[in-house]
């Protein structure tokens, strides 16, 4: 994407408006999936066309968290209606055998969750992770319940360490620090904004990797005196690493 955008910017036959139109299509298709080109992505596309660096990952992750919460709630309600228990086996069995009765509208790029899971839980898939089109239907693309129950034994907290470079620049280390600390993510929805809590330490705690007692996480947008909670959440997210 970066290479294509650079080529369009250097092409004399492509003006700035066409470049913005291309970026708007790309954002609406792959970053913030939407049936149409959303008006909310136009300011982002304009800044990208002008070479402004914008952090898209926090907003994308917020949309994934939102849809995963919606998916979990919908499956639990469906299991409750069918009088199934709340165990992982019953939820998986209901989702696989009777999923046709569950109608859920999800917009986030959930294929990224598959790549995340395959890199950290190798037993879930014997093949290397690959980006799949989440709009395609795969009849036999299911994971057995046994693998779901036992995959925690092979959990990899940092699967990309082995292939990382020996030297890290300052911006890379700063971005990595943002990924390790608690914060709130600001997401973009059609005509509105929202926030989702980001608690990365909980992942390590579930697999015995936590070495400290986690304290209470305070979120800035809960303060009633804050006029713009989304700006406060973003300011808290990008605060200095030394704080």
Any overview of this molecule?
This is Protein MAIN-LIKE 2-like. Residues 14-239 form the Aminotransferase-like plant mobile domain. It comes from Senna tora. InterPro entries: AminoTfrase-like_pln_mobile, MAIN-like. The protein is mostly helical and 243 residues long. It has 4 domains: 2-54, no CATH class; 59-107, no CATH class; 109-161, no CATH class; 170-237, no CATH class. 45% of the residues lie in helices and 6% in strands. It is built from 10 helices and 2 strands, in the order ααααααααββαα. The protein has helices at 2-10, 16-31, 42-49, 57-81, 88-97, 111-120, 145-150, 170-180, 201-205, 229-237; strands spanning 183-189, 192-198. A two-stranded antiparallel ribbon has the order 1-2. A hairpin with a 2-residue loop joins strand 1 (183-189) and strand 2. Helix 2 packs across helix 3 and helix 4 packs across helix 5. The chain is globular. The two termini are 34 Å apart.
Question: Would you identify the regions where 5 or more consecutive residues have pLDDT less than 50?
Answer: 86-97, 133-140
Series of H and E elements: HHHHHHHHEEHH
The counted number of beta strands is: 2
Largest sheet, in brief, is:
2 strands, antiparallel
Helix % is 40-55%
SSE arrangement:
Layout: H1 2-10, H2 16-31, H3 42-49, H4 57-81, H5 88-97, H6 111-120, H7 145-150, H8 170-180, E1 183-189, E2 192-198, H9 201-205, H10 229-237
Antiparallel strand pairs: 1-2
Helix pairs in contact: 2-3, 4-5
Briefly characterize the structure.
This protein is mainly alpha-helical. It has ten helices and two strands, in the order H-H-H-H-H-H-H-H-E-E-H-H. It folds into four domains: 2-54, no CATH class; 59-107, no CATH class; 109-161, no CATH class; 170-237, no CATH class.
